[in-house]
Write a structure and sequence with these properties.
This protein has about 725 residues and is an alpha+beta fold. It is built from 15 helices and 33 strands.
């Protein structure tokens, strides 16, 4: 009796333990998925962090001097200033102490009419009242005395270029100096003409001796020039006029070519070049702030276009300072100071300037700080230092999903190009080509997998003899165990070259194979019933296998003939001429075949179970009422099994969306926007696999790749949720059958 009572108790314990284990497993899965989602969100959310700009210190500037230009070392410990008397001072920011002072003007009676820091240069440029332009290198050498770091400035003499033989004061000017000593300067003379002088340095490779030669040119200026800048390679001179015109002279060894003119509207008050020397930042009298660059025209000429515009400033834009690390820049218009990024057309920060008037502005080499010199509200001279934290300026919803106008492009485009061989590269991080590539690969793979998987499952479940089904179903399901890397390898290295050679034959198959199947089915149906009755139901599938194999072989054999007759002997040439589409060896057709082969077993297995689970009494009742086998399958079995079939399609969709290795190896991995089946693409998953090993941790690319992973997560979640809702609706609809 006691033994009889103990048995249910043990079963109860086992049942409870099983329930707890299953519940714990389910909760663990949910927690794991939520943990992954939280981790991805933690990596993506910093992309939304706004820039932070804060005043970090102030240094007094002698009241009798006006700072015309300033720059600093990379570590922001020292700042160099150039005043209107030609005195260079270096101040240690920790205590405001002057650690270096030198006068660069000879004779001492001369004075400066303007000063600047050329773009991408560690030098001061200055124009004098006796017709000269001086370029003083201001690199900082670092040595250590014990634990103390000692900064030593470049003590070399300045490069002097004579622009006005009449020794008259120079007007607006621009200059550039490279590391080899080559220098170019341009300035407006007293009479309004434009003078350009160049110093070229040639070094003897054998002796090491350097020889400098100087050339000078003078041209008429079409308008009153108010601002100028020379690009870092000293090949282009840009100028703005009081009439609102942008002037562009190409330079050849310091000699200007034919001027090109573009109207900008309001008078131009400030010009500078972003890193790379291709994008021109323009400030205007009415507060307009914009970025321009050269765009290739249909006649193979280049024309400057206004590519990016920023909010209007409260006053004339007088000061501009480009970043030496990215496409960002600082601008001061009226009493407002702002931080901007060109590519994303993003205003990162704006605020009231700590100084009433600003005479010089500098963006530090590591883009982590800035300096502005001028006078404060009380009129005292000051130099103000800023701390800047701006981790992801490239990222905006428009930059990630919209069209962006990149340097040199003819129009805004969707582009993904995360790296380049130059430091002045403009990152292109549009996820739209990757989304399109993901959907493109999924579409072409499901275009093959859905019909074959569902129709194959229907035939196997409803028409094939159970004996054959016992062998066929496991064989198809085993296909799902093939590693995707093997399929990708075969598709990229074996299948793609053969498809390229036999593409006309593949097109011919689309015509011949359906006709062969219909003809074979018709001929089989015309055979005597007594003869057909000798074979088990489903045996005809073997006949169709041989017919299809023969048809495929025939199409490949006829491929050259078909190509000559239909495409003039050159399918790829015909495709380009007739449609404008180029043929790439690794394309969506190859991916559709390879990935369709991977997805078919999943769709087949789930759909076959859905067909087989339809109650047999429904099938028997339909047949008893006089319906034939095909009518029963299409009007009774198919609607009843539709929830499971829909689930099969959605699971196949999820498998195709998340596929990595096949698309990585068989598509060429090119992030282009096109539904053309004959070119490649790049998917989100393949992009993550390719880029994440090279992405700097916590960098913009790194976090953008996590955003791509989040998109995949959200996409599959939405698809699965919609699929479940539709499946439930279908189940309710056909549950009464």
């Amino acid at each position: 009796m006691s033994r009889y009572r103990q048995t249910p108790r043990r079963r109860l314990i086992v049942d409870r333990a099983a329930r707890w284990i299953v519940s714990a497993g389910g909760i663990a899965i949910i927690v794991s998925i939520l943990g992954i989602l939280i981790f991805i969100l933690a990596e993506v959310l910093p992309l939304l962090t706004p820039a932070r700009v804060a005043v970090s210190g102030r240094v007094a500037v002698p009241a009798a001097t006006t700072v015309g230009a300033l720059l600093s070392d990379e570590h922001r410990t020292h700042v160099a200033t150039l005043d209107g008397h030609g005195t260079v001072r270096i101040l240690r920011l920790a205590d405001g102490k002057e650690v270096y002072s030198a006068h660069i003007l000879e004779p001492a009676t001369a004075a400066l009419t303007g000063a600047a820091v050329p773009p991408e240069s560690r030098a001061f440029a200055a124009a004098t009242n006796d017709g000269r332009v001086l370029l003083k290198s201001m690199t900082f050498g670092v040595t250590f005395e014990g634990q103390n770091r000692v900064v030593t400035p470049d003590a070399s003499p300045p490069v002097v270029l004579d622009l006005d033989p009449g020794r008259q004061p120079l007007g607006p000017f621009a200059a550039q100096l490279d590391a080899d000593g080559n220098a170019t300067a341009a300035a407006v003379l007293a009479g309004g003409r434009l003078a350009i002088s160049r110093q070229s340095v040639e070094t003897n490779d054998m002796t090491g001796e350097s020889t400098a030669s100087v050339s000078r040119a003078e041209v008429a200026a079409p308008g009153r020039i108010t601002a100028m800048v020379i690009d870092p390679i000293q090949k282009n001179l840009f100028a703005g006029t009081a009439g609102g015109e942008l002037l562009w002279w190409p330079l050849e060894d310091g000699r200007p070519g034919e001027v090109r003119t573009v109207s900008a509207g309001s008078p131009i008050t400030a010009l500078t070049l972003l890193i790379g020397g291709r994008s021109l930042v323009m400030g205007q009298e009415n507060g307009d702030l914009s970025v321009w660059f050269a765009v290739r025209q249909p006649d193979d000429t280049a024309r400057f276009e206004r590519a990016h515009e920023f909010p209007r400033q409260p006053g004339p834009v007088r000061l501009l300072a480009p970043s030496q690390r990215d496409k960002g820049f600082l601008a001061m218009g009226g009493d407002r100071l702002g931080l901007y990024f060109s590519t994303s057309e993003r205003t990162l920060w704006t605020g009231l300037s700590p100084l009433r008037t600003g005479s010089a502005l500098f963006y530090t080499p590591k883009a982590d700080g800035a300096y502005i010199a001028g006078s404060d509200r009380a009129g005292a001279g000051q130099l103000v230092a800023f701390d800047i934290r701006n981790p992801h300026p490239e990222v905006t919803p428009k930059a990630l999903f919209g069209k962006t106008w990149y340097e040199g492009a003819g129009k805004p485009e969707y582009v993904w190009q995360s790296s380049s061989g130059t430091d002045d590269f403009e990152p292109k991080l549009s996820l739209t080509p990757l989304l399109v590539g993901t959907l493109k690969g999924t579409f072409y793979s499901l275009l093959l997998a859905i019909p074959l998987g569902i129709l194959g499952a229907m035939y196997t479940s409803q028409f094939m003899h159970p004996t054959y089904k016992l062998y066929l179903k496991p064989m198809i399901e085993i296909m799902a165990s093939l590693p995707s890397v093997v399929l990708g390898f075969l598709a990229g290295l074996w299948l793609a070259p053969r498809i390229e050679r036999a593409m006309p034959g593949l097109i011919l198959m689309m015509i011949v194979l359906p006709l062969l199947v219909l003809l074979t089915g018709w001929l089989w149906s015309r055979l005597p019933r007594a003869f057909r009755g000798r074979f088990r139901l489903g045996t005809e599938a073997i006949l169709f296998v041989f017919v299809l194999a023969a048809g495929i072989g025939l199409c490949f054999q006829l491929s050259p003939l078909f190509e000559r007759l239909a495409f003039g002997g050159d399918f790829q040439g015909w495709l380009l001429r007739a449609t404008g589409l180029a043929y790439d060896q690794r394309n969506a057709v190859v991916v559709g075949l390879a990935m369709g082969f991977a997805v078919i077993p999943i769709i087949f297995a789930i759909a076959e179970d859905a067909f087989s689970n339809v109650p047999r009494n429904l099938v028997a009742g339909s047949l008893a009422l006089g319906a034939d086998r095909w009518q029963t399958v299409t009007r009774v079995v198919l609607p009843t099994a539709s929830p499971g079939i829909f689930s099969a399609v959605m699971i196949g969709f999820g498998r195709a969306v998340g596929e990595t290795m096949i698309v990585l190896m068989a598509t060429g991995n090119t992030p282009i926007m096109s539904w053309n089946p004959f070119n490649g693409f790049r998917t989100l998953s393949a992009n993550i696999a390719v880029e994440i090993p090279e992405a700097p941790q916590a960098g913009t690319l790194y976090r953008t790749l996590f955003l791509a992973a989040l998109l995949l997560f959200v996409m599959t979640f939405i698809v699965n949720t919609v699929a479940e809702l539709v499946r439930q609706r279908l189940r309710e609809r056909y549950s009464q059958l």
